[in-house]
Amino acid sequence: MSSPKTAMRLNKILAMLPWVIANPGATVEEVCKRFGYTRKELVADLDLVFVCGLPGYGPGDLMVAYLDDDEVVVEMADYFSRPVRLTPGEGLSLLASGMAMVSSAQAMPALSSAVQKLQNVLLPDAGEAMVVDFAEPEAVGVLREAASTGTVVSIRYTALGTGATTERDIEPWTVFSTMGNWYVSAHCRYAEAERVFRIDRIRDIELTGETFDPPAEPPPPVVNYTPREEDARATIRLGPRSRWVADYYPVEILDDEKDHLIVRFSASDPAVAARLLLRLGADAELLSGDRVAESLAGLRDRITTRYGAGN
Amino acid sequence: MQKVIERILNLLAFLLTVERPVTAEEVRHTVAGYDAENDEAYRRMFERDKDLLRQLGIPIEMRPTDAWEVEYGYVISEDYALADPGLTDEERVALWLAAQAVRIGGSPGGATGLFKLGGAPMVGAGEPLAADLGKSVDELAVAFTCVAERRALRYRYRDKDRTVYPYGLVHRRGHWYLVGPESADVGVVKAFRMDRMGKLEPYGAEQAFVRPEGFRAADAIPAAGWEAGADDLRARVTFDQSVAWWAERQLPHTTEIDRDDAGGITATMSVANIEAFIGWMLGFDDGAEILEPESLRNRLIDRVRGVA
């Protein structure tokens, strides 16, 4: 195996050479900025190119590459005048990230035309074969602005687990999206701690005008749930149709058989597990967990009462 | 690392100028850097270099060296070079910023691709979107290639081999979908969630299908879970004031909504997947109720009682 570093460096050389050949007179600064080189790295790569070329490997066969004052010179290397095609992974990455930004309405105008040009080359005559839809709730824009200007916002928030609604002042740090949902990480003045809020659960939002000093390095934006001592725990047997639960919830897998999966499920509120169990129906079974069992019984009770179908 | 790069540059220079298939033996004796001590060492070195080149997007292929096909040699296929999309520097910068802000399967992509497109004068950094599109680039690249090459994909689902003709690839609400029919000539276009498909393998020849005129992949993706499926019901549902706001944020725009004085709503909507719909309704605890049809009401009640 060649190391990823070797691949990266070779990729860069094979991209830099055609560009310099196509842009004679390019300055060191320009080439460095464009291809992410330091001057020293660029010199090292040019030195390397200088000793390569065609069989014979004499003065007339090797490529010529050096710095002339502030100018990058590459000669006798016409066979490297065409950049290499994109791999499927590279094409997909550029197209998908470009499309995501365009749909988020955050993009510079040049991005739309860039995405269109890439599509014409990578998916010619395919109509709208590839779509990345990244529509965002309205509050995302407000929070993003508040995060960049360091403005405190006041929100009315209904928690997903408990359904409790609270009003809080938060200092928004980072707005991010994962698994199809948008989140904001913030210092919550109400909880006096760092919190992550799901943005579509924010009922109302208002900029207060008050400012705050953002942390020098806000913690990385992740939705991480770490079970705490007081959280509800349950052991659940998942049938074949419910295996997806293990991919969506932070569960611990206790046993993995062909026809079932046994997991330990933790949640800050037992109602989360109860609702999930009800949804899964006969394909899942609660093996142990008193608080979850109690919550599930209550849930069954309330819904049957609502439907006038009490026992 | 230096030695490896030198000999690969020499190999490329040779193959790109010689314009005929070159045997492995000729490479060994002609190209600087390949003069290995023994056959086995040479073979391993050459294989490794070919792999690296393939990884960068440069395919090395075997072709007969003469009309009698007695001997085979290596060539770089003509399509190794970039089809230049003709980007402006402004467009390159925009793509660069997008690639920095969007992660795919946890890693920011795009740098190596962008270098091939001419790099980007990287002035300043934009406000990061910090979005993760999920799924690994490698998995998506297989699907993407087949979409581009109009080639079928094979996968296993519940112990059965299945085929999809990938007309399109869509990311919406955190999931990647492949869109297309399950046979080359029958036109029922469906959406398949990729995280439920298992490992995908290209299957059969390229150009195996033709997309319908004006094809739009996004049209096949349901707006809500209960809109995708084979069921066909109209349901009337009521939501109390406490949860009405949350229901409304998830209901498709086409839903008919009546408001009552207490702040609750009654919605009339289409249900194409009963299972998904029941699951969604249960999430509202006792804050919502299916009014019609009776069959759907009973399905939910049975579920809550533990009968189904």
Major sheet attributes of chain A: 5 strands, antiparallel
Which strand order does the major sheet of chain A show?
7-6-5-4-8
Q: Briefly note the structural class of the backbone of chain B.
A: alpha+beta
Q: At the third CATH level, what is the topology name of the largest domain in chain B?
A: Alpha-Beta Plaits
Structure class of chain A: alpha+beta
The residue ranges of chain B in which pLDDT falls below 50 over 5 or more consecutive positions are: none
Give the distance, in angstroms, between the N- and C-terminal Cα atoms of chain B: 63 Å
CA-atom Rg of chain B in angstroms: 28 Å
Round the Cα radius of gyration of chain A to an integer and report it: 28 Å
The domain tally of chain A reads 4
Overall 3D form of chain B: elongated
Number of helices of chain A: 9
Shape of chain A: elongated
- Residue fraction in strands of chain B: 15-25%
Largest sheet of chain B: 4 strands, antiparallel
Short description:
The complex is a heterodimer of chains A (311) and B (308). With 311 residues, chain A is of the alpha+beta class.
Describe the fold and architecture.
The complex is a heterodimer of chains A (311) and B (308). With 311 residues, chain A is an alpha+beta fold. Chain A contains nine helices and twelve strands. Chain A folds into four domains: 4-80, Arc Repressor Mutant, subunit A (Orthogonal Bundle); 88-122, no CATH class; 138-211, SH3 type barrels, CATH 2.30.30; 232-306, Alpha-Beta Plaits (2-Layer Sandwich), CATH 3.30.70. In chain A, strands 7-6-5-4-8 form a five-stranded antiparallel β-sheet. The longest helix of chain A is centred in the N-terminal third of the chain and has 19 residues, at 4-22. Chain A is elongated, with a radius of gyration of 28 Å. Chain A starts with a helix and ends in a 5-residue tail after the last helix. The mean pLDDT of chain A is 89. Chain B has 308 residues and is an alpha+beta fold. Chain B has helices at residues 2-18, 24-30, 39-56, 89-101, 111-116, 137-149, 241-250, 274-282, 294-305, and strands spanning 60-64, 72-76, 102-104, 107-108, 131-132, 152-157, 160-164, 168-172, 175-180, 190-193, 201-203, 233-239, 256-259, 265-271, 288-292. In chain B, the strands form five sheets. A four-stranded antiparallel β-sheet of chain B has the order 13-14-12-15. The longest helix of chain B is centred in the first third of the chain and has 18 residues, at 39-56. The termini of chain B are far apart. The model of chain B has no long low-confidence stretch (mean pLDDT 87). Chains A and B meet through helix 1, helix 2, helix 4, helix 5 and strand 3 of A and helix 1, helix 3, helix 4, helix 5 and strand 5 of B. Strand 3 of chain A pairs parallel with strand 8 of chain B, so a sheet runs across the interface.
